[in-house]
Specification:
Blueprint lengths: L3 H4 L2 E2 L8 H24 L4 E4 L4 E4 L1 H27 L5 H12 L3 E10 L2 E11 L2 E5 L3 E7 L5 H4 L4 H8 L2 E7 L3 E7 L20 E3 L5 E3 L6 E5 L5 H14 L5 E5 L19 E2 L2 H22 L18 E5 L2 H7 L2 H21 L1 E7 L9 H4 L4 E5 L4 H8 L14 E6 L7 E4 L9 H13 L1
Parallel strand pairs: 12-16, 12-17, 13-14, 13-15, 15-16
Antiparallel strand pairs: 1-6, 2-3, 4-5, 6-7, 7-9, 8-9, 10-11, 17-18, 18-19
Helix pairs in contact: 2-3, 4-6, 7-13, 8-10
Bound molecules: adenosine-5'-diphosphate and magnesium ion (MG).
Adenosine-5'-diphosphate binds next to helix 7.
Organism: Bacillus zhangzhouensis
Protein name: Cell division protein FtsK
InterPro entries: FtsK/SpoIIIE/SftA, FtsK_dom, P-loop_NTPase
């Protein structure tokens, strides 16, 4: 655990404060202490005690002097240690590295000054303005704020992500911009891609799902998700991995698959237990959505219809979570006639607005985020949002409803940005759980279905 002191904001001082004054103070302290000890030693009256039995007198002055010398030595040792602790504080490595960055990037302004020394005009440069940087440390993050004071650093402040990453040697997790400052949040421990096998936490009653080493969430708290990404960005691998997770939950999730392009997901119709749960044509799709809405309404009348259900959710009744996975959502909306599109959209809207308590959720996958295809009122209810693959800022802004976030170019297959309600205040970079190329989804899903059926 970090102490309170460490979690407070610190200012980066540039140029680094010269420690001359401190050295001088240390010298003065040692001198005064030595003089004081000498005086004390001299001022003590002779301590001579006559011991009656042996008729001799014993002097204790040597003993007192020894104590004074020990006191003197310990004080000096402590003050020198304190001095070195202040000068080379190991915890201020952040301040040191940031000061070094200010220096190398010349994030300060100098002006020429003329002064007269010994009847000669001396020109010298003095620092008149320095970028203002603050930082704060928590157990998992280092947070750096560049203050925006209206000088030339105000613009610079929002463009320092890469330089800060290099200066601190830490991975940038998220950024945030206000009128007053630009904030950069760094991970102290690098986030790691995990293997699909380690994504479900097999603890009783837990519906926790791990996405990466640092990111995990409880399914019931983050209902409804939106996954966006172009072809080849890793959407199918991500969702197939999630399906494997969902089937490992207790009670096992009840899944319904919508795949209007008859692609990867539609193959699940050959798996026992999925026969009536995979839809590929428009009528089937509307039927599956309608049936799911009906199931949700039934749950409300059966379980949530009187006062005893107050504050309860589907988990209190041990009901399985129902998840509709809707692939190629925007392609579907464009390929069907308006009436069917409206019908489907109405069902989706109902599920999104009312599904949470009853344990009915929807996952929408699409290639391009477009405000027309997925209305804001639906998007706003998505607690889990991910954008995979390379994307322009318009795309990101549409998914995450945030602006002023610095995104790096995604090159890794399955890499992208994610934002979870209640976890992230702005999108963070992540990589989907890694899946070996020999992994046989259909076989794995078949196995899980049979295991649970018995
Ligand atoms: N999590 C992952 N682990 C391993 N390989 C991946 C992962 N995600 C994507 N890939 C690779 O990228 C390719 C395209 O991914 P895919 O999920 O089919 O993209 P999309 O469905 O978005 O078109 C896959 O065939 C696979 O080789
Ligand atoms: Mg795909």
């Amino acid at each position: 655990m970090l102490s309170r002191r460490q979690s407070e904001w610190h200012h980066v001082v540039f140029p680094r404060r010269k420690m001359n004054l401190l050295k001088y103070l240390l010298g003065v302290f040692i001198f005064v202490l030595t003089a004081f000890c000498g005086m004390v030693s001299n001022a003590i009256p002779p301590l001579i005690i006559n011991i009656p039995v042996v008729y001799r007198s014993v002097s204790f002055n040597g003993f007192v002097n020894l104590i004074i010398i020990i006191f003197w030595a310990i004080s000096i040792y402590k003050s020198i240690r304190l001095y070195f602790n202040i000068v080379k504080n190991p915890k201020s490595w952040i301040a040191n590295n940031l000061a070094y960055m200010i220096d190398t990037l010349k994030l300060y302004d100098e002006e020429n000054f003329e002064s007269i020394k010994n009847d000669k005009v001396v020109r010298e440069k003095r620092i008149v303005r320095v970028i203002r940087i603050q930082y704060r440390e928590t157990s998992k993050h280092v947070v750096v704020r560049i203050l925006r004071d209206g000088d030339r650093f105000t613009k610079e402040a929002t463009k320092l992500g890469e330089n800060l990453e290099a200066a601190l040697g830490l991975e940038l997790d998220s950024t945030n911009k206000t009128v007053d400052y630009a904030e950069y949040v760094f991970l102290k421990h690098k986030d790691e891609r995990i293997d699909l096998n380690s994504t479900v936490t097999n603890v009783n009653d837990s519906d926790e799902i791990k996405i990466t080493g640092n990111i995990s969430y409880e399914l019931h708290k983050v209902p409804h998700s939106l996954i966006v990404g172009g072809t080849g960005s890793g959407k199918s691998f991500f969702i197939l991995g999630k399906i494997v997770n969902y089937l490992k939950l207790t009670p096992q999730a009840d899944l319904r698959i919508i795949d209007p392009k008859k692609a990867d997901l539609s193959l699940l119709r050959f798996v026992t237990g999925f026969e009536n749960k995979v839809a590929t044509d428009a009528n089937q799709i509307c039927r599956i959505l309608r049936e799911t809405v009906e199931l949700m309404e039934r749950r409300y009348t059966e379980y949530f219809n009187d006062i005893s259900a107050f504050g309860k959710t589907y988990r209190d009744f041990n009901l399985p979570i129902v998840i509709v996975i809707f692939d190629e959502f925007s392609a579907f909306m464009h390929s069907v006639d308006k009436k069917i599109a409206k019908e489907a959209l109405d069902y989706v809207f109902t599920l999104v607005m009312k599904g949470r308590q009853a344990g009915v959720m929807i996952e929408i996958l699409m290639q391009r985020p477009s405000a027309d295809d997925l209305p804001t009122n639906i998007r706003a209810q998505m607690g889990f949002k991910a954008g995979l693959g390379a994307m322009d800022s318009i795309g990101y802004n549409m998914i995450f409803d945030t602006k002023n976030v610095e995104y790096k170019t995604v090159t890794e297959k399955g890499g992208g940005y994610i934002q979870l309600d209640g976890k992230h205040t702005s999108p963070v970079y992540f990589e989907t759980p890694y899946i070996d190329k020999d992994f046989d989804f259909i076989a794995e899903i078949e196995k899980l279905m049979i295991q649970r059926a018995n």
